[in-house]
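Lab notebook, bench 4. Still working through the backlog of constructs that have no structural model yet. Next entry is a single chain of 204 residues. Request: give me the structure tokens for it.
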Amino acid sequence: MNVLKMAKDVLLHPLDFFYDIQFEGRAKYRLAAVMIALTIASRLLSLIITGFSYETVEPYEISVIIEATWIVVPWLTWAVSNWGVSTIIDGEGKFKDVLVSSSFVLTPYIVLAVPIALLTNLLSLQEQSIYTALNWFVFLWVVYLLLAQVKIIHDFEVGKTLWITCLTIIGMLVVWFIALLIYGLISQAVDFVIAIIKEINYRT
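Model written out:
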């Protein structure tokens, strides 16, 4: 399967992978959809099979929508913010390339989340440092791939890559703030309209 080969490439040869994905026809939206679906599935499965001592949420409390939102929203806002910031500062990457390659950055999590969750069934709380170290290993691997993606996709130097990454994170925060602000205004407007309708009905 093409997506499996690409996932293997991003783990073993990330720089070559991010360079090659820019060629016409390699970056496809369906590939990004598959990778994000696998990320969500890995997240849900890891929550379900995590050992009792390490559980952060009961299995019956797990919400597919909430867990999916925690993955999809940061991924989309990262892609939009990174493409927008990089375009202003002479980045060469296309939005499609940024969006698709950003989904493959999550490959280490997809591969290791479930095995780490299974391991918690064998670890005691006194061995929590092993669990923490493994999670940090996955996190740092994802961060490395993210930085490699920005550098290769946009053809930046290392210093500029770090600078653009910081600006991208700031851009994400701005997008989230504006989204929450709009949500709050719409919510208040809806409540106001409902209150008026109730008042009219009461008086009539």
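Notes after review: The chain has a mean pLDDT of 90. The helical segments are 2-12, 14-20, 29-49, 64-88, 95-104, 107-119, 128-154, 158-203. Flag for follow-up if needed.
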